[in-house]
Amino acid sequence: MLCGICNTNISKYRCPKCSVPYCSLSCFKGEKHIQLDNESGKRQPTTTSTSEESAVSKENDIVEQSIDGNVARFEDVLRDEQIQSMLKIKSLQFHLSTILRILNDPQLTNESTMEGRREIANKKLCNLRIGGIEENELIEDFVSRVLTLLA
Ligand SMILES: [Zn+2]
Ligand SMILES: [Zn+2]
Fold it and tell me: How far is CA 87 from the centre of its chain?
């Protein structure tokens, strides 16, 4: 096939953008080809946006799948007898509700982003675990039980 740009040499490549066959880098970088690319860019805006949309929806599918998976796993945790009896203990309820409040109430921490609040809640939880400044055996037992069930 002849090069679609110089129409002289045999083409060895094809442009991924405008799919014109071309022979060499100098043709590929030439003025004439740049114009072809620009025109093809204008002609195919729908194709581009459709492929972008499908990529986005694929990503959403993955996120939804992993959320579904997590929900199922947390249901397993909640069905666990050890977890159920621990959740009846007042002091554990208190600490867990504190962590929930950190996560859900921006006024408590002055953190407007979920990410920031999650970090604070994480730190709080770490403090409550073995070796933390608020070390709490019950929390440690609870957290390690949850982690065992989720592993
Ligand atoms: Zn050429
Ligand atoms: Zn091209």
Answer: 31
Q: Is residue 127 part of a domain?
A: yes
pLDDT tens per residue across span 64-112: 656 666 677 778 888 888 888 888 888 888 888 888 888 888 888 888 8
Which tokens belong to 53?
Answer: 């949309």
What would the mean pLDDT of 28-38 be, rounded to a whole number?
Answer: 94
Residue type, 112: S
> Is 8 contained in some domain?
no
Task: Give 40 Cα–ligand 1 centroid separation in angstroms.
Answer: 19
**How many residues would you count in the chain?**
151
| Structural domain boundaries enclosing 137 | 80-150
Closest ligand (CA of 12): 1
Q: Does some domain include residue 109?
A: yes
Whole-angstrom Cα distance, residue 40 to residue 113? Answer: 42
Tokens of 59: 């990503």
